[in-house]
Amino acid sequence: MNRTNRLAAIVMALQHGHETAHSLGEKFEVSRRTILRDIQSLSEMNVPIIAISGP
């Protein structure tokens, strides 16, 4: 899955409910850090994303 498709898939996954970076990483077979970078990119594109820090 290329990055553009993954960004779109992340948006769709988040629209359906709460997800963690870890679970998204497993779902898309990338690292947690890659998901965090993707979420940062989406935020810079003005996609509204609400994040809650875990323990």
Automatic annotation (TrEMBL):
Top-level division of the source organism's lineage: Bacteria
Keyword Transmembrane: no
Entry keyword annotation includes Cytoplasm: no
InterPro entries reported for this sequence: HTH_11, WH-like_DNA-bd_sf, WH_DNA-bd_sf
Domain called Helix-turn-helix type: residue spans: 6-54
Pfam families recorded: HTH_11
GO MF term list: DNA binding
Keywords from the UniProt entry: DNA-binding
Name of the protein: DNA-binding transcriptional regulator YafY
Source species of the chain: Paenibacillus xylanexedens
Organism lineage string: Bacteria, Bacillati, Bacillota, Bacilli, Bacillales
